[in-house]
Write a structure and sequence with these properties.
Order of helices and strands: HHHHHHHHHHHHHHHHHH
Shape: globular
Mean pLDDT: 77
Number of domains: 1
Helix content: over 70%
Oligomer: single chain
Strand content: under 5%
CATH architecture: Up-down Bundle
CATH superfamily: MFS general substrate transporter like domains
Largest sheet: none
Number of strands: 0
CATH topology: Growth Hormone, Chain: A
Number of helices: 18
Distance between the termini: 34 Å
Radius of gyration: 22 Å
Structural class: mainly alpha
Low-confidence stretches: 203-237, 455-467
Length: 467
Amino acid sequence: MEKPLPWGYRWRSSRTFIIFTVTVALFAETFLYGFLVPILSYMIEVRLRIDPSETQRYMTTLLSLHGFLGIVAAPIIAHFADQTPNRKIPLLVALAGCFVGTGLVASTYSVAALFVGRVMQAIAGCAAWVVGHAMLTDHIDADNLGKALGLAMTVVTAGIISGPTVAGAMLELFGYWSAWSVPLIVLAVDIVARLIMLEPGDRSVPKNDETTGLLQSTDSPDATPEAATNGDSGTSRRHFYQIMLSDPRVVAGLANTLLMSSIFSGFEATLPLHLRAVFHWGSLATGLMFFCLQIPSFFLSAATGWMRDRQGLRTPTALGWFVLAPLLWLLGVPGDDHFPWAGADTHGPALFTTTMFGFGLVSMLVRGAGSLQVTWVVKEKQRQNPQIFGPHGGSSRSFSMVEMAFGTGSMLGPLVAGSLSETVGYYATTSFFAFLCLVLAGVTYKYYDTKPARPVNSVPPASPEEA
C-alpha cells in the first residue's frame, strides 16, 4: 500500500521553498554575526563593567574566537554532513544552537558566560553556513551557479547590512533588550521554516518525477558510466583535501576568501573605536558606516553572479583586488596627522563615508568569487568521476574548506588589524591590507578560471526554472 503524502509536500519539498529556507538560515547567521559588532562595546563597558581601556582587547578576542572555531568545526561538520543525503536535521540543530547561544550572550553578566555563548554561536553558525551552501550547490548546475548564489547572497547581504545597523539603532533608540529581541525573533522564524521543509530523500517524501526533476543535480546526467569506474573512489574519498589542495585554482580561491574575510572582520574589530576616537561617532553612526559598506551588495549580488556565469571569474576578480588597494589606503587617511586636510573638522567624514561606499561597490567583484571558484572545481572533478568524493558528493567538504578560509580570515583580521591599529595606527593598518590586495590581484589573474568547465555535448537550460 502506497504511503499517503505528507501535508503540503509539493511546496514543502519544492526547490523554491528549500532555497528560501536555506537563504533565511544564511541571513540569520550573518545578521547575528554583524549584530554583535556595534553593541559589543556597550556590553563590555556597561553590562560587564570592564575598563574602557580593555575594550579593544576583548572585542578582538571575541571576534577572533568566532573565526578560530570555524576553522576547527568546519571539517568535522562537513564530514558528517556528506555522509547523509538529508541535510534538514543538521540545519535544524544548527539553528537551535544559534538560538541558545544568542540567548546566553544577550543575558550574560559574566565574561565566562559571554564566551560560552559566543562559542555556541560560532559552531552553530558554521554548521548552518556549511550545510546550507552545500544544499544550494547540490540542486543547481555549474552553468547557473553564479546567478543562484548571487541571489542567495542578496539575502545574506541583507543580514550583513541590517545586523549592525539594526543593533546600533535599536540600542540607541529603544534600549538593550529591545535590540536583542530582533535576532531572537529571526532565529525563531527560521526554526519554524526548517521544521516545515521536506528535503528530497526524506523518508516521509515519496519519490516522484516532479520533485526529483526539480531538485536532481544536473551534473549526474552528464557523467559517463566509464567515469564512475575510473580510479579508486575509496582512496579518493579518503584524500578529499589532498586532491583539492593540490589544485592551484582551489588555493587561489581560498586565498580570495581568506583576505576578504580578514578585511571585513578587521573593519568590525577596529572601526567602532576608530570612528569614536577620530570623529566622536556613536553606535548609530558606526552602524550606518557598515550600511554604506554593504548596501551595494544587496542590489548587485544577483547581477554579479549573472556576469560570472557568462564572463568567468579571472579578469573581474583580479581587477577588483587591484582597485580595492587604493580604496583601502584612502580609508586610513581621514584623521591621520599626515593629512590635516582630512581631519574631523574638515573633509574627513565626507571622504571616509564616500570611500566606504566605493569599497563596498568595488568589493562586489571579489566577494563570493573564492567560494564559486572552489565549487566549480568540485563540480568539474565530480563530472569527470562521479564517485571521486563518495556517493553523496563533496559539497559539504568543499564548503568546509571555504568556511575554514573564512574562519581563518575572521580570526586573523581582528588580530592583525587590532594589533596594528593599536601599535602603528589605522593608516598603517589599511596600507598593509592594501598591499595584500595588490598581491592577490596577481595571484588571481594567474590561477583563476575564466568560465566553469562544461561537459561535452551539454545543453544550457532553456529557462531559470529548468536550471
